[in-house]
Amino acid sequence: MGLFVPSLSKYVFRSVRQGVARSFAFDTAQSMKVSVASKLDLSDGEIQQFSKKLGQFTPNAEPLLRGEALKSEIAVKSIETLQGLGFNPRELRRVLFKNSPIMLQDKERIERGWNLLKTELDMTSEQLRSFLMRDSWGLIRLNQAAFQVRLEYFVNLGFKRKQFISMITRHPHLLAYNFGKMVGPRFNRYLEEGMTKEEVVQMFDKDPSMFGKSFANSVLPKIKFLVEVGVARETIFHDWLVNHPGCIRNALGSYRDKYNRIMQKGFSALQFLALMRDGGRLLNRDINQTVEKIDFIRDVLKKTNKDIAEYPECLGVAFHGKMTRRVAYLDCKGRDYQALSLLDLLGPPDDVFARERAGGSKADLKDFGAWWDELPNEKKLDKLGESSYPNQFYASNTAGS
């Protein structure tokens, strides 16, 4: 009974030590579980949803968020660093959804990227947080040397430093795009289509997201469609893409649908081209709103498709914010709104319109607009011709004011 068994004693000691270690690890994991979840204000259900999204970028995402992974402590410290830069839980969710690897970066790297971008982009902390919620890759990828290399590359393409900074501010993905696979080849592709270097620079400066569009798979099919409906290739490459690159922003299928809906209204091919003379903006507008405006112009204002084609800008104005408001104001003043051309009705600034078209004043039109905006949209058109406007707006009370 008094015998000492070394091997057994060693086994018991080792078992106790391992048990303590496991207990410590479990307690630490539980602590980290609470810490990570609370940093993002996530429920268990939200953790699962969030992990599914993060799983596209980070293996073992759910254990990482729950504090059960080896790198959970790093994730917590990264979140704390971002919170120290002013990100609230809602903003942190957006940042991590866009760029989950930021959770695994040390404090020094995150703060280095923050200070670099804040200095180079000349942003306030609030502006930079908004910027990083769109794309935070630059926060962990850039140092001063890498930023300078990227800047010099764009300068060599023909961009000025100011343009480069402006493009990054509007399209943060530029900080991550690969030079050899995306930026250079896509810039050169437009040169191959006959555009000048200055035109290509202007196009990307106006819409830097064009660097993210494949020419063969995204841009070219839309250009072919525009050519099919009668737009000259030279117009597309030397006017629309240069001045209004957003003309090819939407999906090709939506362009065909919009074209068909408009043509169903009886416009000729030439009239459709006239509607497109503002750089193709027509194809980027909500087609239901466009059709609503066409119906109103034809049914209420008694205009023809020819009238609309002669002033296609009419389809770009706010329907109730300007078009119906001005018609109702004229109606209230006893003016014949059907006698005015679309240009005379919608073209002048408010002061000229109110004074010369309606016999009122800019201040009176503003007050009328405030009343008009309060009406439910579905009841606004019922007011036309009913003489049911507030007394203060009738011509006898405001003429000559």
How does this structure look, described?
The protein is mostly helical. Helix content is 66%, strand content 0%. The chain has 24 helices and no strands. It has helices at 6-40, 44-54, 61-66, 72-84, 89-98, 107-120, 125-134, 137-141, 144-157, 161-170, 179-192, 197-206, 215-228, 233-243, 252-263, 269-275, 287-299, 305-310, 319-332, 342-346, 350-357, 362-374, 377-380, 395-398. Helix 19 (319-332) crosses helix 22 (362-374). The longest helix has 35 residues, at 6-40. 26% of the residues are buried.
Which helices and strands appear, and what pairs or packs with what?
Layout: H1 6-40, H2 44-54, H3 61-66, H4 72-84, H5 89-98, H6 107-120, H7 125-134, H8 137-141, H9 144-157, H10 161-170, H11 179-192, H12 197-206, H13 215-228, H14 233-243, H15 252-263, H16 269-275, H17 287-299, H18 305-310, H19 319-332, H20 342-346, H21 350-357, H22 362-374, H23 377-380, H24 395-398
What fraction of the residues are assigned to beta strands by DSSP? Answer: under 5%
Number of strands: 0
Number of helices: 24
Largest sheet: number of strands, sense, barrel closure: none
- Helix share of residues? 55-70%
**Backbone structural class:** mainly alpha
Task: Report the C-alpha radius of gyration, rounded.
Answer: 31 Å
Order of H and E elements: HHHHHHHHHHHHHHHHHHHHHHHH
Summed over residues and divided by their number, the pLDDT gives a mean of: 85
Given as residue ranges, the uncertain stretches (5+ residues, pLDDT < 50) are 1-16, 18-34
Q: Determine the N-to-C terminus distance.
A: 116 Å
